[in-house]
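Exercise 7.
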Amino acid sequence: MILAASLPILFWLQTRAPDGGLSLAFQPASLWRGEAWPGLFTSMFVHAGWAHVAMNATGVFAFGPPVARLMPRARGVLGFLAFYIVTGLAGAVGYGLVHPDSYDALVGASGAVFGLMGAAFRLLGRRDGTLRPLTDRRFLLMAAVMMAVNLAVGLIGLVPGSAGARVAWEAHAFGFIAGALLIGPWVRLFRSRRTSFASPPDLGDPPS
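Solution. The predicted structure, written as tokens, is:
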């Protein structure tokens, strides 16, 4: 919830920057010339408009909790934030590999959000906190549907609330794949000895 709330706050600060936060964006062509390396990291904290940031904040709010519950306590908080950042970096790097000559500015936390989504999809229907295998039919079906929607939106090519901007669907795809692949080893690194959590039908938190 804190992470989701931080995105509109950061965007509000971004709107007050002299360049509107453009210097924090990621440009693949600059990267391959040995420039703008910080943009790989900073681009996930700036957005193209209020609609853009609202969509990503909603995504964090929807897919972050099941992933966060896999990594409880202070160690888990660090693990969760690191997972978010690493999958966001994977999305940006993937976009850069697909468009090495592009000077288009990539902004947004969508790669990290799709990373959380990829991890959360491996928990579908699991009430004990165990992950579905990567070969699980239900996971593969949901992943295929989401990637098809992602591609369709990308072909339309418009970011909500930002006239003329294109959807970086490649960054979404790389973030999703990174999240689905990394969540297994990540949980082994950052999970406490308690290996499961309750998932009652009501909206209350599981017992501590």
